[in-house]
Amino acid sequence: MRQQPLLRVVKRDRAGLPVQAAAYLTAILAAVLTGAVLLLIQGVDPLDFYGQMFTLAIPGSRYPWRMVENYIKLFVPLLIVSLALALAFKMRFWNIGGEGQFIIGALCASAAAMKLGEQLPQPVMLLVMSLCGLCGGGLYGVFAAGLKVKWGTNETLLTLMLNYLALYLLQFFAETKAPWNLFLDTASARPKFARFPDSAQMLLVPIGPFRLNLSLVAAGLLCAALFVYLKYAKGGYEIAVVGDSPSTARYAGMRVGRIVLRTIFLSAALIGLAGAFYVSTAGILSASVTNDVGWTGVVVAWLAKLNTLGIVATSALITVLQYGCQTASTSYPAIDANFANLLQGVILFLVLAADFFVRFRIVVRGRNGKEDSK
Amino acid sequence: MKKILALALAAALSLSLASCGGGNNGGNPGGNSGSSAGTPNSGSGGDASNTGGNADFKVGAIYINSQNDTAGYTFQHHNGITTAMKDLGMDPASQLLIVDTVPEDDTLVANAIDTLVNQGANIIFGISYGYIDAMADKAEEYKDVIFSHGTGWKNNDTNFNNYFGRIYQARYLAGIAAGMKSLEQKNNSIGYVAAFNREYAETCSGINAFALGVQSVNPDATVYVNKINTWGDETLERQAAQALIDTHDCVVISQHCDSAQPQMVAMENGRFGCGYNSDMTDQAPNAHLTSAVWHWNVYYQTAIQAAMDCKGDASQFVSKMNGNAYYAGLAEGFVDASPLNENVAAPNTKAVMDAVRDLIISGDWDVFSGVKLSYNIGEDGSVEIVKTDAPLMSDGFELKDGQLVEMAPEIVPAGGSPIDDGVIKGSMNYNVAGVVEG
Q1: Helix, coil or strand: residue B388
Q2: CATH of the domain at A305
Q3: Which residues of chain A from 104 to 143 reach within 8 Å of chain B, CB to CB?
Q4: Alpha-carbon distance A109 to A130, whole Å?
Q5: By the CB < 8 Å criterion, does A282 face chain B?
Q6: Is the Cβ pair B118, A67 closer than 8 Å?
Q7: pLDDT surpassing 90 at residue A164
Q8: Residue A363: closest C-alpha in chain B
């Protein structure tokens, strides 16, 4: 008889909601405490730091609404990208090409802005940019999906590598001064991206001093649409079936290849749309346009267990974490962005650990070498 | 780090979900969440004595790299700002607000500015070129805050200026040291590891000034430029320096890149070198002659003082600074050649450098002009500077829209007055005669 290993990981029966909640709360608490210890070592008052971090230092600031606007600028891309990635993950298609699809979407939207911005009125121009972002990102994603459907290539590797292709393409445009390079500012001696014409800037709805970014409204509508699509539409059901078992789907008469292509196009197109929103909100392209949203989106989608509402909540919290850390660290010379990253890493890692222990448990080998229980 | 986490997650996802039935699956979400930052405390010993009514004044800064760096571009600016503040009797621990590691992305820069303004910054320094548009926009939006942008060219007439220095003057002095060494070693090949060349006025003006300094001592010398197309990459810098020595037998290696690797390569090969940004004698004691260095605190002290003198009226900043573009050089002590390593330098080098430094400081002569310098060195080590009218000549090519095209070679006629505009406005896009790229 083969001896059991000393420690084994065994899947748990479904843990109840209270257990799950307790596990996650413990994890967050442990992370916050770890962070507090690290802060104390650096001579920073953790209460003050966390206070500023979780409120984005809004109380007592000179232009509080500006902080909310900035928060929205960071939140919307992360939300859309996470939703889109979850769509692919539901189908067990590991699209980690969010960065690349975001960049291509941003590039396509920017090209439209630079080329047509002078001619089209603002609402039309924004629609055109969104469409360009959708198509650009979508086609870039569907390329990897097509290869998988046709030849069974590994989509994880392919989408990963396509990220770098997109990134270097963007850098090429950023650094190459040439007459054909429509992205660059001709007034600058150094290569630098040009500002979009006014009509290519995102619409802002003034509410008092606050200016509501329309991409937030669009993201909200998108959430609702995806929720309905996944829950009630045939397409959403097909995604779930293909994800569970492609053979079952085939047996049920579904055209798996077509479903994969359609879903990945949708996923990547939405990521491209997020890129288009981002550049039109900024009104300019940049070489670091993604702000790591393609990576963070994977984390968000996973933490939220691919649940649409969960993704809304998680991406909102992660954005507070990121933006709040930066805001809070501003007044402490000892705390730099690396520390903020470290703190985020600790929190994410412990929450993931909690997630692991909710779903699995570690079994120690019994004294007589037999399994304890199952 | 985030990338590693995401990849680990993707791996965990596929492992744990793909095998849903199996109980014995070690779906361990591996991947370390980044190593500890281990940040050394940046000596924020607050001696906030004699804060003459300026205890409320807040300085904001946006950095491209970490504020806890111990070398490099961000470090120099951070060091300059904290030194300036301490010299002004301010306490950086409580009066300096920093957002660091901000990439050149308008949204992120604008967010950083909003954060600083919200926390009460009275003046905001942005040190990286790509911050230019966000700073220009925000200067219009926040009229009660002062904005100051390093290496840029945008400004306004009230609360927004830009700043940079005449580092080419220091390069000329370093060129003299290199030229003297090449004469002593009887080798007319001098190498230059450059991040870029004609693509940026910042780089080609440095190359040109250095070459003119070399030629003032050794008119037969050639400066070979090896371009690495990035501002810093230690491996490429090392390879580029070695290639210059191997192909052109260069005796002195100068550099416009971040690390001291070219100086170390020079030493390993028994050659000599001129560094940049910091005194690199420590890294290459048997090779390094002198470095062109910045004293950023000179600007930061001037600017913070002027900002405080505005007494709350930010619109006076530009007039207090006597203009909206600050370009100081040797005269103000903003740039200089670091102390000469006299154990390595050729005899009389220091005397010649000092004489030329005094000449430039006096304002009677500048590097890019129609007057060439040469030197008579007496037996006793005395130096007489000889001025000769001669045209400033390019090598006949300029870089336009990414293409090398022919140009009229004469830049300044013999006896013509200096043109520093091309450097300051960033339009210089050629090499002077005697510079060879490749």
Answers
A1: strand
A2: 1.10.3470
A3: none
A4: 7
A5: yes
A6: yes
A7: yes
A8: B24
- ipTM of the shown complex: 0.85
- Between positions 297 and 326 of A, the ones with CB within 8 A of B are 298-299, 302, 323, 326
Q: What are phi and psi of A11, to 5 degrees?
A: -70, 135
pLDDT (tens digit per residue) in B339-397? 999 999 999 999 999 999 999 999 999 999 999 999 999 988 899 999 999 999 999 99
Pick among A41, A336, A339 to test the B interface (most B CBs inside 10 A):
A336
DSSP secondary-structure letter at A284? Answer: B
Instruction: Give the per-residue SS3 of B178-195.
Output: HHHHHHHHCCCEEEEEEC
**Is B108 near chain A, with CB under 8 Å?**
yes
Determine the average pLDDT of the residues in A77-101. 95
A 192-251: CB under 8 A from B: 192, 195
A63/A70 Cα distance (integer angstroms): 11
Residues A86 and A166 in one domain: yes
Facing B10 at nearest CB: one of A66, A156, A190: A156
- Cα distances (Å, whole numbers) of residue A6 to A3, A362, A369: 9, 10, 9
Please provide the distance, in angstroms rounded to a whole number, between the alpha carbons at the two ends of chain B: 37
* A130, A262 contact by CB (below 8 A): no
Distance CA B133, CA B105 (A): 10
Domain count, chain A: 2
* Residues B293/B307, Cβ–Cβ less than 8 Å: no
Q: What is the pLDDT of residue B26?
A: 35
Regarding whether A142 and A36 lie in a shared domain, the answer is no
Residue A210 distance to chain B (closest CA, Å): 14
- CA B389 to chain centroid, in Å, comes to 31
The predicted pLDDT at position B14 comes to: 52
Q: How long is chain A?
A: 374
CB contact under 8 A, A331 and B101: no
Q: In terms of residue numbers, what domain contains A80?
A: 64-331
Give one DSSP letter per residue of A110-134, joined into a string. HHHHHHHTTTS-HHHHHHHHHHHHH
Q: Are strands B335-337 and B371-377 parallel, antiparallel or unpaired?
A: unpaired
Give the Cα separation of B146 and B116 in Å (integer).
12
Q: Where are the beta strands (DSSP E) in A105-216?
A: 204-207, 210-213
Question: Are both A213 and A244 inside the same structural domain?
Answer: yes
Q: For B180-235, write each residue's pLDDT tens digit.
A: 999 999 999 999 999 999 988 889 999 999 999 999 999 999 999 999 998 888 99
Q: For the purposes of burial, counting CB atoms within 10 Å of the CB of B271, is it exposed (0-12), middle (13-18) or buried (19 or more)?
A: buried
Q: Is A292 in Cβ contact with B26 (below 8 Å)? A: no
Nearest residue of B to residue A192, measured between CA atoms: B130
CB A347 within 8 A of CB A33: no
**Are A192 and B130 in contact (CB < 8 Å)?**
yes
Question: How far, in Å, CA of B134 to CA of B125, rounded?
Answer: 12
Domains of chain B are: 59-154+296-328 (3.40.50.2300), 167-293+336-437 (3.40.50.2300)
- Provide the token pair at B104: 């050149």
| Cross-chain Cβ contact A330/B93 below 8 Å | no
For residue A107, the SS3 value is helix
Confidence tier at B409 by pLDDT (50, 70, 90)? very high
Beta strand pairing call for A210-213 and B430-432: unpaired
**What would you measure as the largest C-alpha separation in chain B, in angstroms?**
93
- Alpha helices for A42-121 (secondary structure H): 46-55, 64-90, 98-116
Q: Is B369 exposed, middle or buried (0-12, 13-18, 19+ CB in 10 A)?
A: buried
* Chain A residues touching residue B25 (CB < 8 angstroms): 9, 11
| Tokens describing residue B73 | 């571009």
